[in-house]
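Chain A, query sequence.
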Amino acid sequence: MGAHIVGSGVSLPPTIVTNDQLATIMDTSDEWIVKRSGVRQRHIASPGVGSAELAAEAVVNAVANAGLQPGDVDALISATMTPDHYAPGNAPLIQDRAGLGRVGSFEIRQQCAGFLYGLDMADMLLTTGRADTVVVVGAEVHRGYMPYGDSMDILLGLSDADPTPEDIALANDGRAWSVLFGDGAGALVLQRGTETSGVLASTLHSDGTLFDLIHVPGPGFINYPWSTTEQIDDGLHQPQMNGAELFRQAVRLMPESVIAVLDASPYELGDLDLIVAHQANQRILDGIAKQLGVSSEVVASNIANYGNTTAATLPLLFHDCKTNNRVPEGTLLAFTAFGAGAHWGSVLYREPDA
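Chain A, predicted structure.
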């Protein structure tokens, strides 16, 4: 009995930063960013707003969208790579702020593939009878990573000063990756369904040999002390990325996992109506369509509006597709993601009849 998605909700910071605004604090342009990534704008959270706050808002919105009350939820699964605190993580903060009561709350760390893993975990909880209603939420506030110095206040509208030469140089050093990311949260509510709809099959993979494709070297408990000012000065608290190899692996492994999850079902590629893929780069999405030989319309995209929101991309995209009537009754879709670790996979899902 595959898990059914019965509600969705999102939370997005009100501040939108366009590529043209980024061009005021670094040497870049809208044309350069769009050509390389497809991103046109992104939301950035205000100081003091963390991923747990956005996640809780998305959970409350999703529960309401499902026509339920917070007390109806039996379990919460939170996916993020940008928690408010190193410990205890976001899950208990979200559980409390969303008013869910003392339900079991899981925190998982598969980065861009986190929400995909959360969907599979929710399906297992529901199909084994361990829960009747589960919420999965992905939320990120990447603001803390951004290499903008005091120029962040300019982007947030908190300062009308000109960026300093030092801050421009800092932003230029990180512009290849920093322009990709945005802040936001999305949540889905799932309940037990039928054998012919809901989650039909899944395939999940990890490969630690690909660990250094994208990782954050420090802080970490491999070091003593685990956090130092030198790590910050050296930029080790920011993502380190092998962009070319990351692209190659993502474009190969996500399509492979889509085919694998279809092979585990009675369906074929031609039966697939929609692919809800991780929104890392429009070129990756185009590569997925090419590898699978499907129309670009099948591979849904909203990266232009949000950028890469890591664990939040899948629920944000599903919510957008649902809101825009792209998931009518009977739609066969595949969720797929590739993230740091490396973690990747796909979940096959049939939208149930009303």
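The CA atoms of residues 218 and 237 lie 5 Å apart. The chain has 13 helices and 13 strands.
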